[in-house]
Amino acid sequence: MILTVTANVALDRTYVVDHLQVGAVHKLRSCFAQTGGKGVNVSRNVAALGGETLVTGLLGAAALEQATRELTAAGLPNAFFAVAGDPRQTVTVTAQDGSTTAFDEPGPTVSGAEWASFEQHVGGLLDGAQMLVVAGSLPPGGPEDALRGLAAAGAAHAVPVLLDARGGALRAALDQAPLVVKL
After folding, report:
1. What are the DSSP calls for 1-35, one per residue?
2. pLDDT at 144
3. How far apart are CA 183 and CA 167, in angstroms?
4. CA-to-CA distance for 161 and 14, rounded, in angstroms?
5. Which residues have C-beta within 8 Å of that of residue 127, sequence separation ≥ 6?
6. What digits encode the pLDDT tens for the residues 19-40?
7. Tell me: the pLDDT tens digits for 130-151?
8. Once rounded to an integer, what is the mean pLDDT over residues 65-93?
9. Kind plus residue range of the DSSP H or E element containing 160
């Protein structure tokens, strides 16, 4: 089983328009919404390729039931960790010419206690995992060394870690020797 961690789960909404013009009113050709974030998207691909996966991540409590129901219906087992605050939302606008514009909210602010509990939650999910994928941005309030703790949990369970991050959070986790790092 591949355990994917999305520290800042999002409710992704995609709008398709004929032409995007700043300051104009647009009629949508179509709209698509789903629970997302880099780790969630990795799990979608693992499942599509026939692999076994488990999705976890921090999610604003207001969206927990909807996200759980959606991913379960899509055949993606999940064990989200609810935090106070509204969920992060993203809006992507795609025009017929292929140009894309994205708007990404920062997400709920996570307390130190919530992050520590989340690390314990992830540690409890590692039994039976053959790989840990930690991907995406950190929510506001996430400690600078947040990914180090997750990578250390993988190492403590002898589970190879694939890390997709950037900046100080990435640098802080490098001493845990992840198997793969995507910048």
Report:
1. -EEEEETT-EEEEEEEES---TTS----SEEEEEE
2. 84
3. 9
4. 30
5. 157
6. 998 899 999 999 999 999 999 9
7. 999 999 889 998 888 899 999 9
8. 94
9. none
**Cα maximum dimension of the chain:** 54
- Nearest-Å Rg of the Cα atoms of the chain is 17
Q: Where are the alpha helices (DSSP H) in the chain?
A: 38-48, 64-73, 112-125, 146-156, 167-173
**What tokens were used for 170?**
């990435």
CA–CA separation, 93 vs 75, rounded Å? 27
pLDDT digits (tens, 9 = 90+) for 115-131: 999 999 999 999 989 99
Q: What is the pLDDT of residue 91?
A: 96
SS3 call for 59:
strand
Burial class (CB in 10 A: 0-12, 13-18, 19+), 27: exposed
Q: State the Cα–Cα distance between residues 84 and 111, nearest whole angstrom.
A: 9
What per-residue confidence (pLDDT) applies to 37?
Answer: 93
Among candidate residues 182, 15, 70, 52, the one with its CA nearest the CA of residue 129: 52
| CB burial string 53-76: b at 16+ within 10 A, e below | bbbbbbbbeebbeebbebbeeeeb
